[in-house]
Amino acid sequence: MLTKNKTVISKVYIKSPYSGLEVPFKKITQTNTTSEDGVVQNPDLLVYDTSGPLSDPNFQPHVKGIKKLRNEWVKSRKGNVTQMHYAKKGIVTEEMEYVAVRENALLDQAKHLNINSNKPTDLPNEITPDYVLEEVKSGRAIIPANIRHTELEPMIIGTNFLVKVNSNIGNSALKSSIEEEVEKLVWSTKWGADTVMDLSTGKNIHQTREDIIRNSPVPIGTVPIYQALEKVDGKAEELNWNVYRETLIEQAEQGVDYFTIHAGVLLRYVPLTANRLTGIVSRGGSIMASWCLAHHQENFLYTHFDDICEIMKAYDISFSLGDGLRPGSIADANDEAQFSELETLGELTLKAWKHDVQVMIEGPGHVSMDQIKENVIKEKELCNDAPFYTLGPLTTDIAPGYDHITSAIGATEIGRYGTAMLCYVTPKEHLGLPNKEDVKEGLIAYKIAAHAADLAKGHKGSYVRDYLLSKARFEFRWEDQFNLGLDPETARSYHDETLPKDSGKTAHFCSMCGPKFCSMKISQDIKKKHGDEIQFIEVGMQEKSKEFIESGHNLYRKV
Amino acid sequence: MLTKNKTVISKVYIKSPYSGLEVPFKKITQTNTTSEDGVVQNPDLLVYDTSGPLSDPNFQPHVKGIKKLRNEWVKSRKGNVTQMHYAKKGIVTEEMEYVAVRENALLDQAKHLNINSNKPTDLPNEITPDYVLEEVKSGRAIIPANIRHTELEPMIIGTNFLVKVNSNIGNSALKSSIEEEVEKLVWSTKWGADTVMDLSTGKNIHQTREDIIRNSPVPIGTVPIYQALEKVDGKAEELNWNVYRETLIEQAEQGVDYFTIHAGVLLRYVPLTANRLTGIVSRGGSIMASWCLAHHQENFLYTHFDDICEIMKAYDISFSLGDGLRPGSIADANDEAQFSELETLGELTLKAWKHDVQVMIEGPGHVSMDQIKENVIKEKELCNDAPFYTLGPLTTDIAPGYDHITSAIGATEIGRYGTAMLCYVTPKEHLGLPNKEDVKEGLIAYKIAAHAADLAKGHKGSYVRDYLLSKARFEFRWEDQFNLGLDPETARSYHDETLPKDSGKTAHFCSMCGPKFCSMKISQDIKKKHGDEIQFIEVGMQEKSKEFIESGHNLYRKV
Fold first, then answer.
1. N or C terminus of chain B with fewer C-beta within 10 Å?
2. What is the pLDDT of residue B118?
């Protein structure tokens, strides 16, 4: 039954084998392989899909927002409603089941298709709701899911799951429009953002956030100190616990899923930044440092940490413990200020866990390639394996305009050693506010980094996509190659530039080299024309190989 | 004397302290730093410049070509004229002196400015002509410099020097224009290509190459089998030693500086590719495999290797021993075919060195992040530390349209472990022929990779540029920041998008966050307003620190 011979990308929902929950995927249907040996059907591939109802071509963002998937799940939850709390009680939540199905799909397909890189790996072979529960319970993974953000399609952040990517959006005093920010949200999830941070600091902060959350299928993070600072007219020294508390509750009520809180910027760490080349480059960090110095008091986010936990556990908001003292240049990487703060974040992690509040830890920043691994090792040790969430890092400072690339390099490196989520950097970093195109560029660079990290970690599911795409490439199934890629539109348009639209898509040679110089074509021909001969040489070689081994010769000469 | 307060990029020539040779650099002049403490002059920075006479704004490429810098140097050279030959005789050539001055400039400035990352490193503190001689003599570095390419500004490729970048240009049967290719050459050197390969396979191969070489200040590499194949109408089985030999001499006479020669694709290795997912993806590799099978004979490039060396030493053409069996997908990385060929390339390296012919070794390809380091280790061991020259590698196959990024990640990783030159990949890889914009995108991505690798290797000179740019950034010297970057034009235009042209360039806040949320500004203010307080806390902390140490407490808690 070879009826399917069209390449299509569609949205499908898979019923969970546990309770029947429906979990969304993007399905890539491939064309058949046609050769002299006949026609062979190529498998469909289900890939992780972050776009939610937004990927419906008819979807228009609006105030009422998207479907409230979790309404029924959360309506009877009371008291401490965190996923960690349930996990510790041994209760598998709908969220845990949902993420298990999401994360297991690629592993399942790899098994089913028998496509495996066979690398040694610490990652699990199968992800079940019970496995998710254990990871959340131990604090090694978090499911950021405010009970007021019922539009959310739950996802998980942890070393033992697929590496995730965050996109930052939000206006500033220099540029403002609610519509534009909601559009950036939709756009972000289209290109694979697993979470989105609304970093607005301009006008209409409250309403912008409201429209973003009501339309978001992915967790939304914020940095509440930004809005608190607006409330005191931008004067850091006038900040206080009451203004901050009120802001936390306002945002919690709206449904923010995780808060970046710079509670590790302690008074005694501020002087450690005095001789840095680029001082403090985190906005939240510099605000809190300024406050500490102005009052000569300890950071009120630190002294009120238990109060903050009380608020967060009532909504199940996760901590993203901010790295206010992250390095802002290669020169300042891995210094005392940075690692001192990290130690305090570890202390706060344990405190949050006592409240069953979920925690991830933010990380740098700007770090040269040789100093990146140390960051993951230290974070795991100091913060008891809480998930690490890093900004890049940028591996050099010399390419303003290309920091999505300088940092995708660092993100891959930090990801492969266990960082759970990578915060994207756009080409506009250090230069201006990203527009839609920048958001896309940043996201693609980071989807690459996350996937390259998954491959390096030996994730058995992630390898399937590389395999199928390469097979499509080798067989000149151009449309399949495009659709299996991260950005089919761009790939197709690049191909169109060199080869005419229709003929090119069935061309049995690469658009780069032309027919005579197409190595793939020659390589296929070799197999076709010389199959018998290869067989012959192989047999001869096996004999030689036997002699070789028997002679005790060492393959690799030492010189 | 603070007369300079303009940011300018200019071209300068520095006289060698040895014989007075003039060596070109790009000079970046910075503005002054103005603060309450007064005005401080910022240093000029001399950076490596590959653009040759082409960066003269009045330059027009033409048939006669650029200045013949090396005419006098080479005119009396006879017999074996390779740099390795002279090095073995203890003779410092003009080329060696020239590259010493080029490579030492950044190290010298780092010392002079006392800006140093203080990382442990295997790299030298100073590069002298004698040091260059030793590196060339040992085969650890090469200076590709055909005596017929007198327009060349010599450069060196080796692990202990700055990591280099190659750009590929050249037409195909599908797209052809000599002018366009010469323009791509000029464009490549503008964006920092250290060498350029002309991979033309279309019409007018000879004349295209002629115009490229006559206008090129950087070494030109080719893959002679492409033109040889054209001579036998694209029929691989009709290739033979005579046609190939004639092609080598034709190209040698024109002045090609290095030849990619796939002499390691042995008959017995071809069957090793039969079960690969993507077979043979090197054009030269597939042509030679096809020939071997058709004749059931050993690769004539292998059997005639000594004859090839005889030709190459008469012109001082370097080998770029081709990796015809490199993997074309993550699935095929680091397999037996690939490493068997590498072993043969090691054998051929020793053979070439007997003729005093310089050698570098080509490498993959498509390799996941965790398998990259192994490639460098094997290459060094099997090929006796001959410089490694790799294509990427791509760290995932799933992003057609973005392979400059998938591969810049791998290039950084392979570069940091000692790969000497990185062959760029453009966004069009696998999809079409790169246009000018693609060439630029590919080059910037690879300049980033090369620089990030230099930083990771602890290169004491490369760190200066990051340092100065970050300082300019922290002090809101926008124009200096742009000019110190790899692409001032793009950085400037991105900044313009957010802030109005003139006011923005003196703005004391980031265009991203606006005045109130500028961490850099707050950080500067902290230092200004709270300097005394920081001092006070610091003194207190020193006492605490003393107590801490005396109490024998361990900073990093073990949990």
1. N
2. 85
Task: Measure CB to CB from residue B399 to each of A401, A448, A559 and give the nearest one.
Answer: A448
Which residues of chain A lie closer than 8 angstroms to B273, CB-CB?
523
Q: Which residues on chain B are in Cβ contact (under 8 Å) with A381?
A: 556, 558
First CA to last CA across chain B, in angstroms?
Answer: 59
Mean pLDDT, residues B34-61 taken together: 86
Q: Which residue of A has its CA nearest to B513?
A: A172
A50 has pLDDT over 70: yes
Q: Which two tokens stand for residue B470?
A: 């970050």
What mean pLDDT comes out for the span B469-473?
96
- Among positive and negative, which fits the CA dihedral B72, B73, B79, B82? negative
Residue B394, classed as helix, strand or coil, is: strand
Secondary structure (DSSP) of A170-236: --BTTB--HHHHHHHHHHHHHTT-SEEEE---SS-HHHHHHHHHHT-SS-EEE-HHHHHHHHTTT-G
Quick check: B552 pLDDT over 50? no
Measure the CA–CA gap between A409 and A416, rounded to whole angstroms.
11
Whether pLDDT at B1 is above 60 = no
Q: What average pLDDT does this structure show over A14-21?
A: 95
Asked if the Cβ–Cβ distance from A516 to B173 is below 8 Å, we say: yes
Phi-psi region of A514 (alpha: psi -120 to 50; beta: other; left: phi over 0): left
Chain CA centroid to CA B354, Å: 27
**At how many degrees (to 10) do helices A178-190 and A436-456 cross?**
30
Contact between chains at B513 and A432 (C-beta distance less than 8 A)? no
Q: Which of A23-37, A355-369, B335-349 has the lowest mean pLDDT?
A: A23-37
Q: What local confidence, expressed as pLDDT, does residue B505 receive?
A: 67
Chain A CB contacts of B433 below 8 Å:
498, 511-512
* Helix/strand/coil for B71: helix
Task: Kindly report, residue by residue over A286-326, the tens digit of the pLDDT.
Answer: 999 999 999 999 999 999 999 999 999 999 999 999 999 99
Contact B485 A399 (CB under 8 A): yes
pLDDT digit string (tens) for B354-399? Answer: 999 999 999 999 999 999 999 999 999 999 999 999 999 999 999 9
**Cβ contact (<8 Å) for B537 and A271?**
yes
Which residues pair with residue B319 across a beta bridge? B259, B359
- List chain A residues with CB under 8 Å of B556: 343, 378, 381-382
Distance CA A413, CA A421 (A): 12
Spatial contact of B344 and A555, defined as CB atoms under 8 Å apart: no
Q: What b/e sequence results for B108-118 when a residue is b if at least 16 CB atoms lie within 10 Å of its CB, and e otherwise?
A: bbbeeeebebe
Q: So what's the pLDDT on residue B525?
A: 75
Are B364 and B328 in contact by the 8 Å Cβ rule? The answer is no
Write out pLDDT tens, residues B224-240.
999 999 999 999 999 99
> Given B175, B452, B474, which is nearest A368 (Cβ)?
B452
**Set of chain B residues whose Cβ sits within 8 Å of the Cβ of A556:** 343, 381-382
Contact check, Cβ <8 Å, B517/A226 = yes
Instruction: Give the rounded percent of residues in chain B with a pLDDT score beyond 90.
Output: 79
The residue of B9, B106, B260, B405 whose CB has the most chain A CBs within 10 angstroms, and thus the best one to mutate to test that interface, is B405
Distance of CA B405 to the CA centre of its chain: 16
Nearest Cα of chain A lies from the Cα of B512 at a distance, in angstroms, of 4
| Chain B residues close to A416, C-beta within 8 Å | 369-370
Taking CA atoms, A93 is separated from A89, A103, A162, A317, in Å, by 11, 16, 20, 16
- A512 with B282: Cβ contact below 8 A: no
Question: Nearest CA to CA, how far is B160 from chain A (Å)?
Answer: 17
Q: How far is B89 from chain A (nearest CA, A)?
A: 23
Average of per-residue pLDDT across A395-406 = 98
| CA-based nearest residue to B54, from B42, B62, B46 | B62
